[in-house]
Each structure stands twice: as C-alpha cells, then as structure tokens.
Specification:
Number of helices: 11
Mean pLDDT: 83
Strand content: 5-15%
Shape: globular
Number of strands: 4
Strand order of the largest sheet: 1-2-3-4
Order of helices and strands: HEEEEHHHHHHHHHH
Structural class: alpha+beta
Distance between the termini: 22 Å
Number of domains: 1
Helix content: 55-70%
Low-confidence stretches: 1-12, 299-304
Length: 305
C-alpha cells in the first residue's frame, strides 16, 4: 500500500452502530445520531466528541488504544441509544431517564459477564474429570464461549424489534462501505440508490470484534494454566482489556488490508454478520446516510464500524 493510499484510506474512515429506529455515526471529532420518528420524520442529534487519547498520547499505543476505543464506543453508544429511545417514547409522552438507562446497561453488562465469562468457566470445571491437559480445557472453554456468543446472537435475531435493529445495522454498514469505497463525503453526490448495491458486511463491525475476542481469549488464557475456579474467573475478568486490545489490533490490520493473513482471520466474523445484519429498506438507508452526512461533512476520522 502506498503512502498516498494510506492517507486516503484514513481520510475516509467512519464508524457507528444501530440504535432504535436509527443509526449513530462517528467520524473524527463528530458524532451524529439520526432517528426515524413514529410520524416518519428524521430527527438529528450531533455533538463533538473528544478522545482521552488526545490528552494522553500513551493511550494511542497498540493494545491500549483498543481498550480505550471499546470504552469510548460504549459511552457514545449509550448516549445514542438513550436519544433514540426517548424519540420513540415521546409519542407516548414518556421519557427514559439517565438512571434508568444506566441500570439497563449495567444489567446488560452483568448478563454478558455471566454468559460469556462465568458460564464457560464453570461448565469447563465440570469437565475436569473428562478432559486432561491445560490446553484441552482452555480449548473446551473457548468452544463453549464461542457457541454461547453465536447462539445468543442467533436467538435474539428472531425478536421482531431486534430484527429492525439488525436492518439498521445493515444500513450502517452499507452507507459506510459506499462512502469509503468512493473516498468522498456523502454530500458530494452519494445517493440511496447507489448504496442499495453495497454489502451489509463490514470488516470493522462490532460483531467481528466480539468473535475475535472469543478466539483471542483462548490463546491469552492458555498462558495462565488452569488454576482454581475463582482464580480463573479473576484472571479472565482482569485480562479482558488485554484480550479486547489484541482483538482490536487484528480487526484494524485486516481493515487496512495489511496482510491476507489478517483478512483471513476476520473472515469468520464477516460470516457471523449474516446473523446480526438484515437487508434494509430505502427509508432505513436514508436514515443512516443522514447520520453520516451530519458528521463527516464537518470532520473526518478513524473509528470502528
């Protein structure tokens, strides 16, 4: 890859996530949320966002930047989700408070820890008399964790509300893919009709990241042997930032096309996106396009999709 190509790619990098009847996009120092109201209008919210890495350059180092990106993405995602939820609730003269949203997020994080950290570890402990060797036990635990991740995604996809969110997820990927392929702001001429031909899969998707975390965790946790159940739980929780940072670096390198090896590593994540994305309709693509326009026309940057 030439230096000019590298600059062009970094200049056309955006990311986001699906929310309730809408999409959040981020590019550089701008974050925008576009939501379709119950009346059919599109409501926009835009704000400037600052990364802690701007004040603490050490956080730009590999591994560290992955953990920071995860925390900052979660923070922005919560704000975007709260905005979209209140837009939908406004038709019933209701409003979701910050405390209510915080409790919901904490409950979700708690469920994730139970399902994807505690349950695999405890289930593997029951296999201690059947499996022999630390490697076999770690591989079994990783397999259980991977099966739970895929199974959970497959099950929630059948919920009607989540199916709508997955359509907006697909719209987000299609809009970002079209913009990155053309290397220009959407306002320069990108249309909904052009976007309709794009793929709903994207290399920097959070789905690929989650799958990569499950895979990397098997390798990282193998270095710690097979201590007691309590020791394994503590190690897995403490090492999550490191695992997330390594997974982030792999996804980043694959998205930049540095090596076919990295692209091969994220291929399973691209396959898994068939469960977390749906083909959107034109109205949903329009919402995603409005969100991207609202932030990249002002500033451009680098984030995960």
């Amino acid at each position: 890859m030439s230096e000019d190509q590298g600059r062009d790619m970094r200049a056309t990098r955006a990311g986001g996530q699906a929310v309730i009847e809408g999409v959040m996009m981020r590019a550089g120092c701008n974050m925008a949320v576009a939501v379709r109201t119950p009346e059919g209008d599109i409501v926009l919210h835009r704000e400037r966002v600052a990364s802690l890495a701007d004040r603490r350059p050490i956080l730009r180092l590999p591994i560290l930047r992955g953990g920071l990106a995860l925390v900052e993405s979660l923070s922005m995602g919560i704000r975007a989700l709260m905005f979209s939820a209140n837009i939908q609730a406004s038709s019933e003269d209701e409003e979701i408070s910050a405390a209510e949203m915080s409790m919901a997020v904490l409950a979700g994080l708690g469920l994730a820890v139970v399902l994807f950290v505690l349950l695999p570890t405890l289930s593997t402990a029951l296999m201690g008399n059947v499996l022999s060797g630390r490697l076999a036990l770690n591989l079994f635990e990783g397999g259980v964790r991977l099966a739970l991740v895929v199974g959970y995604i497959a099950v929630v996809g059948y919920l009607p509300d989540m199916a709508r969110v997955f359509q907006y997820h697909g719209a987000e990927h299609m809009v970002i893919g079209a913009w990155e392929a053309r290397g220009m702001p959407p306002s320069a001429g990108l249309t909904v009709e052009e976007i309709c031909g794009e793929s709903t899969a994207h290399a920097r998707c959070g789905t690929s990241f989650i799958l990569m975390v499950a895979v990397v965790s098997v390798l990282v946790f193998s270095f710690f042997g097979w201590p007691s159940i309590l020791g394994r739980i503590v190690i897995r929780l403490l090492m999550l930032p490191v695992v997330a940072g390594l997974a982030y670096e792999i996804i980043r390198l694959a998205a930049e096309g540095r090596s076919r090896i990295f692209q091969w590593l994220v291929t399973p994540g691209m396959w898994l996106q068939r469960l977390t994305t749906r083909v959107p309709d034109a109205d949903q693509i329009e919402v995603a396009l409005e969100a991207l326009r609202a932030c990249v026309d002002v500033d451009e940057g680098d984030d995960a999709a």
